[in-house]
Amino acid sequence: TERAFAADPAGAVLDGRDIATVICPDADVKLYITAALPVRTQRRLNELSVRGEQIAFDELQAQIAERDRRDMERADSPLRQAPDAQMLDTSELSIAQAVAAAVGMVEAVRR
Question: In which residue ranges of the chain is pLDDT below 50?
Fold first, then answer.
């Protein structure tokens, strides 16, 4: 299970929309990673394009916004930032920069 994996003494990295609030609320380090909706849309559009899938930007953005709304408003485990989670906005970051920022945030807490 995710909880058993997270309990590994060496540490673990888990990602998901309810990891910090439901699955591992007592984790030593919690990051809430986000990006602006247009940025997330473009990133997803790029992923789909590599796979040969085509969709209009506006249509995809509407789908992502609707998913966010549903996830935030659902009764069971709604998407929200844990009160003790650090926010990492990756809107202006490359993958390498985002990873470096996340590692830096984790290392700062673990010192």
Answer: none
